[in-house]
Amino acid sequence: MRKLVYYVASTLDGFIAAPDGSFDFFPLEPDPQLVAEWPQTFPTAVHPHLGLDAPQGRFDTVLMGRGTYEPALAIGVTSPYAHLKQYVFSRSLPPSDDPGVEIVAGDPTTLLRELKQQPGGDIWLCGGGRLAGQLLSEVDELVVKLNPVVAGSGIPLVARGFEPYRLTLVDSRPVANGVLLLRYAATGR
């Protein structure tokens, strides 16, 4: 069965973006180690600059919320991860004209469970916090790029009511710019 992997950058105080959705306070220079290990998590447009040619990896699908998708739309990019099948969860966006992007107004859990039953690679949950909150009980692995930044407020790693969800630390190691890569397996089911 395919796994859902929430791979995301976070501040020390648990925010994945500023209150307005911007994320330019995170290091923008990609770490070569993360490029090598997680090549599919970089937007298709930057692949040539990173030396990536049709990156191979564990993912063939990406899930994102409207707020994660909209920065690409704002600069005219309708398919930010063209190398993956893209599902964007939004009740306000119109259907996409891009064949690589499907706008989904329905329940993300229902679609995710269907996707997990289909053959293919693992599924990357790209963001945002509300979508992660809705799908947390379906997350099989959480990989956090913990940045040495305290934001004070913003979009949380997971937005949902108080409901503790247990994880088991599988790996932790430093990468560039003082970032700590933390990998957890779900145990909260």
From TrEMBL:
InterPro entries reported for this sequence: DHFR-like_dom_sf (IPR024072), RibDG_C (IPR002734), Riboflavin_Biosynth_HTPR (IPR050765)
GO biological process entries: riboflavin biosynthetic process
Any Pfam family hit: RibD_C
Gene3D superfamilies associated with the record: Dihydrofolate Reductase, subunit A (3.40.430.10)
TM spans (from-to): none
Domain Bacterial bifunctional deaminase-reductase C-terminal: 3-181
UniProt-recorded Gene Ontology molecular function terms: 5-amino-6-(5-phosphoribosylamino)uracil reductase activity
Name of the protein in question: Dihydrofolate reductase family protein
